[in-house]
Amino acid sequence: MFAFNPTFEAPAGSPIRELFKYLAQPGMISFAGGYPASDLFDREGLDAAAARASQQPALCLQYGPTDGLAILKEELANLMTRRGTPCTPQDLLVTTGSQQGFDLLLRVMVAPGDVVLVEQPAYPATLQALKLQQADVVTVPVDQHGLDVAALAALLEAGTLRAAPKLLYTVPTFANPTGATLSLERRMALLELAARYRFLIVEDDPYGDLRFGGAALPSLLALSDQVPGSRDWVVHFSSLSKIVAPGLRVGWMVAHAEIVRRCVVAKQTVDLCSSSWTQAIAAEYLASGALERHLPRIVDAYAVKCRTLCDVLEAHLTQHVAFHRPAGGMFVWARLKARQNAADYLRVCIEHNVMFVPGVAFYKDNIDAAALRLSFAAPGVADIETGVLRMKLALERFSGALAG
């Protein structure tokens, strides 16, 4: 009946959000959504920040500049400096979550048919955005140490791509979904490849502050100063969603001035500006030092939850499930050793009131149907223990049904 844009004639929604209907099932324990723990939100600190912001109604209740409130950009530049990546407010564009920043970048940089490289498995919203942009997506494998940079180098050197790649998307620190962290050696090699082949590295960094083990590594943006010619080829995204509250919808990008300028123009047609109200609250929250005071509580809690999940998996499912312990972030990436289909297994798990995300959601091609993602951030420790026991019972039933 309607003449839709061809890319929206039969659009596929988020495979993760499709699972949310099961959350209403009484007693459901969810390892599915990549949600931060609601009970760890700093309500007191955010309430105080909101009270201070409300004292400036002309600032927080009015339209704001498209690139973001000056007070927030100043605080975000300070935060980036504390993370080891000095930048100025002029280097920053405030976005409505980092996902909007990625969407703006695609509008500015990627035409239909352009080659885009993506680590795989990858964040599903990234694959969805690239599909709608009609990019020619080429996947690069990952392992427990992150993006396989040697495989990427071989791909680029082979000259088999239909065109030079425009950009490469990666979550180098505590990746979603694998929890893997790109090694320092691989980070340096990746920057060298970007400078040599002149493609943008899209560094998505929402989880970097959630480290509870091992030594911190500099971001790709920070390291780019050490690799001649690479700084201009890094676009860095970050967000307050995982470390403060996703309801603020505050993200930002740091990129070359010419990229930022064009993304500002693209953003003008999308939402004019991000919410001045939540920007002002975020600015007050950061300026007060509340993030530095509260973040250790979140990290400590996630450390306990991750350890609990991994310990219980080892105790009850080690013969059936392989996984790697992450040193931070929100996710454990696992695989059914008998190579059963995780999507089929999920259906049995839902009947046992426990859920996860099957790995198929994170692949464009070469799908590992036995893979699955478990998020330990939102459920409590007791629910994590109970949830794994339910997964064990479901797997016994599932395996029995397969054998039968």
From TrEMBL:
Domain Aminotransferase class I/classII large: 56-385
Cofactor needs: pyridoxal 5'-phosphate
Keyword Transferase carried by entry: yes
Transferase is among the record's keywords: yes
Subunit composition and interactions: Homodimer.
Matching PANTHER family: AMINOTRANSFERASE (PTHR42790), KYNURENINE_ALPHA-AMINOADIPATE AMINOTRANSFERASE, MITOCHONDRIAL (PTHR42790:SF19)
Protein name: PLP-dependent aminotransferase family protein
